[in-house]
């Protein structure tokens, strides 16, 4: 075992994790974040929950993933690979963040969304539905990605004014075949121009 459950949260059914040995950047005796039980944080790899981050319900952090700050991972969400979730980010529903993806600030990933590769979702961005953000894509600012949208390659979607909503769009879809191990949810091919809704 690499960690044990320590003190109980004063008002929630959660427990602090306490490292039992050195692994990754964690030293034996380090006190981490909060989990509902051992089902939420793998005893294998270097996965870790620290600071005031919370992982509960059937959510799981495993492999070498890291959850820090005040991030919350819950429902059946999973964080894996070398993914990093921090700040005030929320990942929930059946969503997955994996690979080397980063989700931070006040971003929210939910429903059946997938964020992976070297993708970054941050600030107030929302990724939901069956949307996919992958490879080197960046979604940030006041952007909502819904439906079966797919943002890939080096695409960047940003708004610092009104909210921009994208539904069932494909941006930066790679022309080369997608490898099975990438486990992408394929989006519908949309040929029309972006439908953008700005709310001022």
Provide keyphrases for this structure.
single chain, 16-stranded mixed sheet, 7-stranded parallel sheet, disordered C terminus
Strand-helix topology:
Elements (H helix, E strand, L loop, with lengths): L2 E6 L6 E5 L11 E5 L12 E2 L4 E2 L4 E2 L4 E2 L4 E2 L4 E2 L4 E2 L4 E2 L4 E2 L4 E2 L4 E2 L4 E2 L4 E2 L4 E2 L4 E2 L4 E9 L3 E2 L4 E12 L2 E2 L26 E2 L1
Parallel strand pairs: 3-5, 4-7, 5-8, 6-9, 7-10, 8-11, 9-12, 10-13, 11-14, 12-15, 13-16, 14-17, 15-18, 16-19, 17-19, 18-20, 19-21, 20-22
Antiparallel strand pairs: 1-2, 2-3, 21-23
Count of domain modules: 2
How many helical elements? 0
Major beta sheet, specifics?
16 strands, mixed
Low-confidence stretches: 174-200
Strand content: 35-45%
How would you portray this structure in words?
With 200 residues, the chain is mostly beta strands. It folds into 2 domains: 1-100; 111-200, no CATH class. The protein contains no helices and 23 strands. The chain has strands at residues 3-8, 15-19, 31-35, 48-49, 54-55, 60-61, 66-67, 72-73, 78-79, 84-85, 90-91, 96-97, 102-103, 108-109, 114-115, 120-121, 126-127, 132-133, 138-146, 150-151, 156-167, 170-171, 198-199. The strands form 2 sheets. The protein has a 16-stranded mixed beta sheet that branches. It is elongated. The termini are far apart.
């Amino acid at each position: 075992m690499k960690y044990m459950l320590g003190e109980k949260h004063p008002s929630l059914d959660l427990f602090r994790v306490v490292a039992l040995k050195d692994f990754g950047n964690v030293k034996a005796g380090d006190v981490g974040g909060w989990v509902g039980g051992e089902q939420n944080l793998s005893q294998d790899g270097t996965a870790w929950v620290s600071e005031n981050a919370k992982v509960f319900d059937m959510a799981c952090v495993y492999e070498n993933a890291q959850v820090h700050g005040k991030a919350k991972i819950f429902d059946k969400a999973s964080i894996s690979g070398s993914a990093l979730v921090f700040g005030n980010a929320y990942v929930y529903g059946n969503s997955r963040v994996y690979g080397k993806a980063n989700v931070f600030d006040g971003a929210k990933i939910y429903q059946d969304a997938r964020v992976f590769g070297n993708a970054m979702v941050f600030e107030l961005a929302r990724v939901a539905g069956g949307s996919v953000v992958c490879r080197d894509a960046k979604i940030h600012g006041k952007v909502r990605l819904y439906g079966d949208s797919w943002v890939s390659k080096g695409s960047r979607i940003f708004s610092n004014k009104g909210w921009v909503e994208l539904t069932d769009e494909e941006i930066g879809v790679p022309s080369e075949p997608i490898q099975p191990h990438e486990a992408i949810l394929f989006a519908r091919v949309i040929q029309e121009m972006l439908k953008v809704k700005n709310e001022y």
